[in-house]
């Protein structure tokens, strides 16, 4: 089965406003752009999963039912703002090494910065982690994503109060930094659907010197001298290395505190290829999308033409088979109402003959 990529969102202070412990569904409030970001992620072919440390359960502040209630309220608000904003799975970790509640006191592999929640979702939903992304506001989100083999976006919205987890030191660098969820999803879409093609280098063309014709004429006029040393031949030139397009900038890990680099102007569509043909193209890719639409329309027109030709195909044997089949019940009625035995036998024999002709004509039409 073909595995799909996913975008893993941290929940608190990424999709919903919360800089601490949230166990009351009545206090759930979406971060600006959350619903559209989830809807866009699904539009681009990603599954959407939330991953959240919920140590409030381990600390005895609320129970797991409260966590699930908050998640349900999150789902309701997302679809209220955008019906396409659907989350495929909610993963959470209620454990903590210093838990007050004994049953939750453990160093769980699910707890971020460990990648347990990501790996569990990937196993259950059949996800391709090498093409997946993690968006979160805390360094532990980035560390968990990197440990699972995903690419990462550090989300730093200046309008939100930073959580204590967001102020922790970061041991790994995110791939990108975004100040809004829209910017984060747009970055992911750009990186997913626009992969620069590194074109192979062309071998250098041999160039003749300006006085090559004169040198050739002088050599032809000079007498041959077997003792003269042969003129030195130029050493073959090695092909130059592949040169990427002039506006190609390799993506480098961004600083977690620096603003994301400005997106460069997109080169023409023929400078790019789709990294994953199973995913839909970006709306702005008018060139590639136009070619795909043109190909699809040509296939539809060809199919309609084939069907119209098949419908217009006139077969004489098929036409005669219809006529003879219509005559069969006619002669059967004549046999039924015949007054003499000879007339009945004659009508039945004629019906049998026409039925046999019908079968033969049908077989002929099928051979055609």
Strand order of the largest sheet: 3-2-1-4-5-6
* Amino-to-carboxy terminus distance: 42 Å
CATH domain topology of the domain at 6-195: Rossmann fold
Please outline the major beta sheet. Answer: 6 strands, parallel
What's the overall average pLDDT, rounded?
78
Question: Count of helices?
Answer: 10
Q: Give the full name of the CATH homologous superfamily of the domain at 6-195.
A: HAD superfamily/HAD-like
Can you tell me the residue ranges where pLDDT is under 50 for at least 5 consecutive residues? 197-202, 206-288
What does this structure look like?
The chain has 368 residues and is an alpha/beta fold. Among the domains are: 190 residues, HAD superfamily/HAD-like (Rossmann fold); 52 residues. The strands form two sheets. The chain has a six-stranded parallel β-sheet, with helices on both faces. A two-stranded antiparallel ribbon has the order 7-8. Helix 1 links the parallel strand 1 and strand 2. The two termini are 42 Å apart. 26% of the residues are buried.
List keywords for this structure.
alpha/beta, six-stranded parallel beta sheet, two-stranded antiparallel ribbon
Q: Can you describe this structure in just a few lines?
A:
The chain has 368 residues and is α/β, with parallel strands linked by helices.
Structural topology:
Blueprint: E1 6-10, H1 34-43, E2 47-53, H2 55-58, H3 64-81, E3 89-93, H4 116-125, E4 133-136, H5 139-147, E5 151-155, E6 176-178, H6 181-193, E7 195-196, H7 212-221, E8 272-273, H8 286-312, H9 316-337, H10 341-367
Parallel strand pairs: 1-2, 1-4, 2-3, 4-5, 5-6
Antiparallel strand pairs: 7-8
């Amino acid at each position: 089965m073909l595995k799909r990529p996913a975008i893993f969102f941290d929940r608190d202070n990424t999709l919903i406003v919360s800089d601490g412990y949230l166990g009351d569904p009545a206090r759930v409030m979406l971060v600006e752009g959350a619903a559209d970001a989830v809807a866009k992620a699904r539009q681009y072919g990603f599954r959407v999963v939330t991953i959240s440390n919920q140590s409030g359960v381990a600390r005895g502040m609320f129970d797991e039912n409260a966590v699930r209630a908050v998640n349900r309220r999150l789902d309701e608000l997302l679809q209220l703002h955008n019906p396409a904003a659907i989350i495929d799975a909610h993963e959470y970790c209620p454990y903590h090494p210093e838990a007050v509640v004994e049953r939750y006191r453990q160093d769980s592999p699910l707890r971020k910065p460990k990648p347990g929640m990501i790996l569990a979702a990937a196993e259950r939903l059949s996800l391709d982690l090498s093409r997946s992304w993690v968006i979160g506001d805390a360094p532990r989100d980035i560390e968990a994503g990197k440990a699972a083999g995903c690419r990462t976006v550090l989300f730093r919205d200046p309008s939100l109060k930073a959580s204590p987890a967001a102020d922790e030191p970061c041991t790994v660098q995110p791939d990108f930094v975004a100040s809004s969820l829209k910017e984060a999803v747009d970055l992911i879409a750009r990186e997913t659907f626009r992969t620069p093609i590194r074109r192979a280098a062309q071998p250098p063309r041999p160039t003749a010197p300006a006085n090559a014709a004169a040198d050739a004429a002088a050599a032809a006029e000079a007498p041959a001298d077997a003792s003269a040393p042969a003129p030195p031949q130029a050493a073959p030139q090695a092909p130059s290395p592949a040169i990427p397009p002039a506006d190609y900038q390799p993506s480098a890990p961004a600083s977690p505190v620096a603003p994301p680099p400005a997106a460069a102007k997109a080169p023409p569509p023929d400078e790019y290829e789709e990294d994953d043909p199973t995913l839909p193209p970006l709306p702005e890719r008018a060139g590639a999308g136009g070619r795909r639409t043109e190909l699809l329309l040509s296939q539809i027109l060809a199919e309609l033409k084939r069907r119209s030709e098949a419908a217009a195909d006139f077969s004489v044997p098929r036409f005669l088979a219809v006529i003879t089949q219509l005559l069969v019940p006619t002669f059967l009625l004549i046999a039924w109402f015949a007054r003499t035995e000879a007339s009945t036998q004659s009508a039945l024999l004629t019906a049998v003959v026409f039925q046999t002709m019908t079968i033969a004509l049908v077989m002929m039409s099928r051979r055609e």
